[in-house]
Structures are given as structure tokens and as C-alpha cells.
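Q: what sequence does this backbone want?
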């Protein structure tokens, strides 16, 4: 693919922020994560150890937590935020506590999300905030609402509270001029999320996007969905904010479809998913007059394609309507090389108490092992940089 001069092979730029010690620690971690049997069997033992108050928390904090998380609190993330922004990479504060189910916990999570927006206000180092809908509302109720089933009076009141949390977060983001991502969820609850996200965008995305909905292209219906929501935005005079990702719940989706005997919503194979993701990029750039886009991808081809599309349309690499995004601790060769070339780049920076973030960390490790070649690529880049530094030191000594 011809296009802008971007090299994802430049490990000096990719790992400029990391010391030799940090790279060696990362090498050890990815060697561990690269063993599927260990990632598959370890979580139950780790959870049991936490329940029994065995001293595993320091080990988790020093390894997988250190690599993938910014800290336990917003304040503890400040060092990571600064370190990333020193290299022109922004941060997305992501409160990654999962699995809560009470109204009290939903209210508490909503307040924490408001705190991230307050922290991000006026700070170029934090270009976006984010929240997960199931962090502020019960999954079972969102599922029932997604299937357009009649809600009882109590359920309708509960739904209004979920909607109220959405609105409070999005309103505060708009007042603070901070862009906010609404993360995607499993297909059986996504319809309710999409409906609320659309209402939020209609209300708060005037001349530019504040609220972004997330589109998972591992679903075979999402390219049509993207076209549909754009037509709605055009007809109703609001800016469409969209974060494109491949997706995060593939195994769970397929298993449920088999168990409940309905057609799987997931693409038949990876090439189909890749094709739809790249077509979605083309669609967004073709309609960039009415779309703000964040490409959440660890795929080198898709990242280069987006840069090429921008060049073909004479869109500046620093155009605020277009961002690239990766996860903290992954694909630094993409993030830092794109930022070095002048593109808008941000990293998800998960945070929260170690034990509360553990489900997120386990999912992250399992997702990494399921992505063909991802761990090998990370290890290869780390080894290249360590070898480069070793050779450089030899030359200097001579």
C-alpha cells in the first residue's frame, strides 16, 4: 500500500518512553501471556487466592496490572498521562471496574465517570473520556429493553434511572467540552445502548461531536448500521460520533447463538471482519463532513489505510475529527509512530482497584491470546528494540 511515510518497524520511536528494565519486564509478561494453557487455567486460582486473601495482589500489581493499567485512582494515572503526552499520545481514562449489579454501584460508577470528565476538562493530554453502559445499568434490564419487551412499572423506573445516568454524563461532557465514548456491549443488549446513544448525539452533537457510539465490525450487520445512523444524523442535523472497533465478545456471542439456536451475529471469518472494518473507514472518510471518527485498532494495515485515505482526501494529519486509538500496553509500534508522524493518537488507560479490575485484566489476557499473532508481534518488537539498544551501546563503546 502506497501512502504517507509511516513505518511501524521503528522500534526506537515505539519504545522511546521505556527503559531497558521496563522492556525486559514486558518481555517476561508477554512470554507468560503467550501460553494459552496458562491464561486459560490461571484465572480461577487467582480469583480463589484473592477470596482467601493470599498475597497475590502485589504480584498482579507488579506484572499484568502495571503493564495494562494506569493506577488505582485518577491521581495515580497522572504519571502515565504525562509520560504518554511527552510523546504526543493522549490518554482516555477508563474506569475498568466490571460486574457490579446494584443501583448503589451504578451511581458510584457514574460519579467516577464524571470525575474523569472533570479531570479531562481543558487538558489536551486527555482528549476523550469513556464509559461502559453495563457499568451504569443492569445488563438484564438492557437486554429486555433491547428486545422491545414490555417493562414492568418498576423496570421502567429503573430504565429511567439508567437513561438519567447516561444524560448526566453526556450533559457534563458537553458542558466541559470533553468528548465521551460510549463503549459497545454484547449484541443482545446493544439495541438499547444504540437507542440511548442516538438520543444523546441528537441532543449534544451540534456543530461537532461530543458523544461517540461504538460500532463493532465483527458483527456482520454493523456496516449497514453505520450507514443507517449516518443517514439519521444527516436528516436530523447532528454530527455523528463513531468509534470503530473489530469487537471484544466473539467467543461469547457464538456460544450463546448455538445454545439458544439463533443465527450468530458474528462474521463468518476474520477476512470478512477486516473487510467490513476497512470499508467502515472508507465510509467515514467519504462522509467526514458529518462524521467524527476514532479508529480503535491494533491492525497495522487498517491504521495505514486510514492514514492513506486522509492523504487522498487532503485531510490534515492533525484534523480533530479523526483519531487513532490503542490500548495501554499494546501496539506501541503503531501508537507512537503515528503520533511521531503527526496523527492524533490516544491510548485507553484503564484504572481502578486491583481486585475490582481483575475481571478486565483476565479478559485482556484472554483476548490477546485469541488474536492470532498479536503476542508474537509484541514480543518480536520488544526483542528488536532490546537488540538495537545493545548494538548501539557497543558502537558507542568502540
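A:
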Amino acid at each position: 500500500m502506497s501512502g504517507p511515510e509511516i513505518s511501524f518497524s521503528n522500534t526506537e520511536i515505539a519504545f522511546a518512553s521505556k527503559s531497558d528494565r521496563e522492556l525486559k519486564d514486558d518481555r517476561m509478561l508477554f512470554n507468560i501471556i503467550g501460553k494459552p494453557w496458562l491464561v486459560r487455567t490461571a484465572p480461577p486460582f487467582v480469583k480463589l487466592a484473592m477470596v482467601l486473601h493470599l498475597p497475590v495482589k502485589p504480584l498482579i500489581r507488579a506484572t499484568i496490572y502495571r503493564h495494562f493499567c494506569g493506577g488505582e485512582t485518577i491521581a495515580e494515572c497522572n504519571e502515565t498521562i504525562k509520560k504518554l503526552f511527552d510523546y504526543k499520545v493522549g490518554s482516555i481514562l477508563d474506569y475498568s471496574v466490571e460486574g457490579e449489579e446494584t443501583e448503589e454501584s451504578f451511581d458510584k460508577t457514574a460519579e467516577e465517570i464524571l470525575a474523569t470528565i472533570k479531570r479531562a476538562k481543558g487538558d489536551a493530554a486527555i482528549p476523550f473520556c469513556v464509559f461502559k453502559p453495563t457499568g451504569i445499568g443492569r445488563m438484564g434490564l438492557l437486554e429486555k429493553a433491547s428486545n422491545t419487551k414490555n417493562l414492568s412499572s418498576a423496570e421502567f423506573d429503573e430504565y429511567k434511572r439508567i437513561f438519567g445516568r447516561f444524560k448526566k454524563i453526556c450533559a457534563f461532557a458537553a458542558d466541559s467540552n470533553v468528548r465521551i465514548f460510549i463503549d459497545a456491549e454484547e449484541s443482545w443488549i446493544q439495541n438499547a445502548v444504540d437507542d440511548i446513544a442516538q438520543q444523546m448525539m441528537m441532543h449534544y452533537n451540534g456543530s461537532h461531536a461530543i458523544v461517540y457510539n461504538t460500532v463493532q465490525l465483527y458483527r456482520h450487520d454493523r456496516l449497514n448500521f453505520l450507514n443507517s445512523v449516518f443517514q439519521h444524523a444527516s436528516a436530523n442535523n447532528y454530527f455523528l460520533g463513531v468509534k470503530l472497533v473489530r469487537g471484544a465478545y466473539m467467543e461469547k456471542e457464538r456460544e450463546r447463538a448455538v445454545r439458544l439456536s439463533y443465527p450468530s451475529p458474528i462474521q463468518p471469518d476474520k477476512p470478512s471482519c477486516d473487510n467490513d472494518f476497512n470499508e467502515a473507514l472508507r465510509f467515514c472518510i467519504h462522509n467526514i463532513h458529518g462524521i467524527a471518527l476514532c479508529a480503535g485498532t491494533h491492525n497495522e494495515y487498517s491504521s495505514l489505510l486510514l492514514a492513506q485515505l486522509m492523504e487522498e482526501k487532503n485531510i490534515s494529519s492533525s484534523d480533530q475529527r479523526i483519531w487513532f486509538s490503542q490500548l495501554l500496553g499494546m501496539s506501541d509500534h503503531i501508537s507512537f509512530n503515528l503520533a511521531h508522524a503527526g496523527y492524533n493518537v490516544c491510548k485507553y488507560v484503564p484504572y481502578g482497584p486491583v481486585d475490582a479490575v481483575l475481571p478486565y485484566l483476565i479478559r485482556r489476557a484472554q483476548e490477546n491470546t485469541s488474536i492470532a499473532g498479536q503476542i508474537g508481534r509484541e514480543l518480536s518488537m520488544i526483542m528488536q528494540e532490546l537488540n538495537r539498544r545493545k548494538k548501539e551501546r557497543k558502537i558507542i563503546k568502540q
